[in-house]
Each structure stands twice: as C-alpha cells, then as structure tokens.
Specification:
Elements (H helix, E strand, L loop, with lengths): L19 E2 L6 H5 L2 H10 L3 E3 L4 E4 L2 H9 L4 E2 L9 H4 L15 H12 L2 H25 L1 E3 L1 H17 L9 H10 L6 H10 L2 H8 L10 H10 L5 H14 L2 H16 L1 H9 L4 H12 L4 E6 L3 E3 L2 E3 L4 E5 H4 L34 H18 E6 L4 E4 L4 E5 L1 E6 L1
Parallel strand pairs: 1-2, 3-9
Antiparallel strand pairs: 2-3, 4-6, 5-13, 6-9, 7-8, 10-13, 11-12
Helix pairs in contact: 5-11, 6-7, 6-17, 7-13, 8-9, 11-12, 13-14, 13-15, 13-17, 15-17
Length: 409
Amino acid sequence: MSTLFPALGGPAEAPPGVPALDADPFSAGFFADPYPVHGQLREAGPFVWLSQYGIGAVARYAEVRQVLMDWETFSSARGVGMADFVKHGRFRLPSIILEADPPQHTRSRAVLGRALSSVVMKGLREKFAAEADRIVDELVVKGTFDACTDLAEAFPLRVFPDAIGMKREGRDNLLPYGDMVFNSFGPPNTFFEASAPRAAAAFPWVETQALRENLAPEGFGEICYQAADRGEITHDEAGKLVRAMLTAGVDTTVNGIGAAVYAMARFPEQWRKLRDNRTLARAAFEEAVRFESPVQTFFRTTTRPTELGGCPLAEGEKILMFLGAANRDPRKWENPDTYDIQRATAGHVGFGAGIHMCVGQLLARLEGEVVLDAMARKISTIDLAGTPERRYNNTLRGLSRLPVTVTAA
C-alpha cells in the first residue's frame, strides 16, 4: 500500500435496509467491462453499499445528479477521491477548483470561466481546425494507424498547451502526470502504484510550467495571472489554476476523442450520418462523452446529516458517484447502450453538473468537434484494424491502443 494514502473506508457492514454488493469498481475486470456491474448497481437500489470499501454509492441518474447539484451537503472540498481530507489529511497537491467549495471555488471558477470562455474558444477555433486538418491529412496518407496515440493523444498535445501558452518541450509529461492524479482518486491499488513512478519526473515539470515566466503572454494561462494583478486572486492561486488546467485538460479530452472514434468504427451507420451532415460533429462528440463517460467516478463527502436514496447518512460519509452508470440509466435514456449522434444528450453528467461542472467543457467540445469535422470531410470509411486495448485508471475510461484503417473521401 502506498505511503501516500492513509487507511481508507468505513464500516464493512451496510446500513440497515441498504443493499450490499461485493463488486470492486477499481479492479481490472471491472475496467474491462463495467456495464454489467453498472446494471447491478442501478437495479439494486437508489443507494447501495460497496462492502469491499465500506462506502455508499449511487449509480442511478437521479441520485447522481442530486449529489452533484447539492454542494452544500455533498462536499468536494474534503476530496473528490476516496480519502477524506478532514479525517486522513491532504496528500495531493491542493486544487482550488476541483477540490474546493465556495467561496474559494467561486473565485477560482470566475477566473477560469473567463480564461476558458466562449469568446476565447471562438478565437481558437480557426487554429484548432487547421491543426485537426493537418493531423487528419497525415493519417489518411498512412491509411492504417493507432487512433489513440496518433490522433486522440497527438491533437490535444499540440493545441492545448499552445492555447495555455506553454513551451513545446516536455509536453509528453502531461499524460503520465494526469494519469497518476486521476488514479489517486481511487484506492491505493496496483494501478495507482504503477502510475506514481511514471509521474515522478512530471511533478516538478508541471510546477515549473505553471509559473508566469514560462507562459506566453497571449495564452489563457496569462489570463489567470492578469486576474491576480487585479487582486481577484493571489499570484500563488493563479499558478495553482494554471496547474489545474494542466492536470485536467489533456487526459479527459484524449479519452473523449478516442471514445468518439471507437464509437464511429463500431457504429458505421452513425459515421455515415455524420458524413452526410457535418453539423452533427459536436453532437457526435457529446454523445461519445455520454456513451463512454471518460470520467467514470467521483466522490463527495457529506457535510451534515442527510438522506440519499431513502438512506439516512451522518456527517463525514464518503459517497461514490458512478457517472458512467448514470449516463446509461434506462430511467433517463432510451436505448442507453446505443451510440446515437442525433440523441438529445442535454443533462448527461459526463462533464458533471452544478457548480463543479467541468469548467473546461467548452474547450473539450471544441477539440472534439474540429477533429470529427475534419475526419468527416476527409475520410470515407473507418474500420478496426486490430483489437483495441484499454488503459486502466481508477477514475478515467479510455484506450491505450485503437488500431484503425481509413479510406480517403
């Protein structure tokens, strides 16, 4: 067990009347195919108990959304992972956006909301689209390629650091760094243990890259420091917000683009729909986020006695939200296990909900949209060229390998 982690978990016995499951949602078997367990969790009840970890969980859409929307009762400030910072201490670098509640969260979000606003995204669109065209042109010439490393990873690593204002050297550090951080939200298992050494060199690099002197004046990292100049936040907080963008801005988008390409290869009729109507590119990415849920789980901690799914809860109890299960809850979605780019996806929780809804969602949507639009213009068919391989992570769902063969339009 990692020395970074304290002893976690609550009582092994479920509260009276609460169904208990022995399933381990942080195991290789679960990561390979989570959907049967998702179904068991949803059907067991609105609130269930995970005996292996001694924690409560919600997997139905209604209860997941209830927790997401009520930050005053279900706190992020005590950690969005399994550990409770109040009980176990803080072992991660402090995030003043993801693991913060108002008033700190309000100040942080106001600044990031400006840096990642629709106005800023509009200014980036042309450059992002041109880069997507260049990458897709290169891949069409190759014909067969790994859509994970050659596209889903390559595109965000080109455009996202540029938009922040980062230097080009060392950008590959962002992937192992993000992988470790998202692994740390789960238990201290083998997946976290394996990711920690790979990220060791990335920690000081990320800290250095978030400093003002290492950021270009035209990037949106500088917007955070300009807010500090005006006294809206401190300069230390500005650096933490830039670091937060570096932490969460790559892996989630990589997995979202990978999910979209994988879905298109498995649902060729949807690919034909997109080619016939490229205005569906953003909807196709949005449906991929619902369908695969790149961010699968997050925790909250109760701040006061409350009730959830008919179960009374005391203060200080960890609640695990299964975002991926909620996004396929048949109580909310018709034919939820089908990828449909014409689906009305409004309300999905792939980007969260409430005040903690992903502040970078407009950036992720822009990246996903321009990549799918470029593909729809330049590629006629997409076929799997081998067996895709999953990248296992305690929080994220994505691929490490996605071999495909494409034909030029």
